[in-house]
Amino acid sequence: MRHLLNPLDLSVEEIDQLIDLAHDIEHHLSKYSHVCDGKKLATLFYEPSTRTRLSFESAMLNLGGSVLGFSSADSSSAAKGESVADTIRVISCYADIAAMRHPKEGAALVASQFAGIPVINAGDGGHQHPTQTLTDLMTIHSLKGTFSNMTIGMCGDLKFGRTVHSLIEAMVRYPNVKFVLISPDELRVPSYIRQDVLLANHIEFKEVDNLDEALPELDILYMTRVQKERFFNEEDYVRLKDFYILNKKKMKLAKEDMYVLHPLPRVNEISVEVDNDPRAAYFRQAQYGVYIRMALIMTLLEVEKPC
């Protein structure tokens, strides 16, 4: 039995295999419609989610399986004080695989230690979000045809943004990838990302606070929202929430083949006027999330690819 808690749980070769499977699913969706008949996915979401939870549910339903679970801690026995360990023990009696989102870092790891079924980390606090990383990787590969020889700009909340942390950790394994980390001083990447991931792997990067100056050199721009739920101080959130807003004028500074990604939800960091730009890829990104989660569910359940 295998779990997915961190993008690094998968080798580069395994990620390539998942993306290949996801692309086949994308182009031959109907042939996968019964591969998980009789299988059940439990979605254990201790904090709010739209895309991640519904994309997991859509993925399992597309495979012919069924879904059970809860969408907030208040609607589960966590409200009565039940531990994650006890919850996953019980859920293991009901389902074949579980996707879990929790506000506490390391919660998915705890669940995996007590689970009788595969556990997928669907986000644990500001730590990791491996299936969003797989979604991001599939999107980049679909748009660029490679993971190598590119400059990726990360913009916005780089301190609390688990999607940013996970994608950096995954991308440093590919050759000649450079990062431009665009944020105010208060929202820069944590020191462990800077020291243990970027510097330790001899990755070229720079930290800047000006989006306009960075745009011309980027191949991918990964925008993120400033996350109100991660702030302890309302004043800090209000001061920083509008620090970066990508609009039509700024897009004129970018390359013709630079694509904009965003894990969503968007608040106002990308103006709606950008949505019609062919380089705006964030809604395609959401669709790719269903295909890659289908591939991951099949892989963890050891379901054979149909002929």
Structural notes for this entry:
The chain is built from eleven helices and nine strands. It is globular and about 55 Å long. With 307 residues, it is α/β, with parallel strands linked by helices. The relative contact order is 0.16. The strands form two sheets. Strands 7-6-5-8-9 form a five-stranded parallel β-sheet, covered by helices on one side. The protein has a four-stranded parallel β-sheet with strand order 2-1-3-4, sandwiched between helices.
Summarize the SSE layout with pairings:
Layout: H1 12-27, E1 40-45, H2 51-62, E2 66-70, H3 84-91, E3 97-102, H4 107-114, E4 119-124, H5 130-144, E5 150-155, H6 162-171, E6 177-182, H7 191-199, E7 205-208, H8 211-214, E8 220-223, H9 234-240, H10 248-251, E9 259-261, H11 282-300
List keywords for this structure.
11 helices, alpha/beta, 307 residues
Radius of gyration: 19 Å
Major pleated sheet: 5 strands, parallel
**Alpha carbon gap, first and last residue:** 25 Å
Mean pLDDT: 91
Beta strands, count: 9
**Molecular shape:** globular
Helical residues, percent: 25-40%
Helix and strand run? HEHEHEHEHEHEHEHEHHEH
Arrangement of strands in the largest sheet: 7-6-5-8-9
**Which ranges are low-confidence, i.e. pLDDT below 50, for 5 or more consecutive residues?**
none
Structural category is alpha/beta
The proportion of strand residues reads: 5-15%
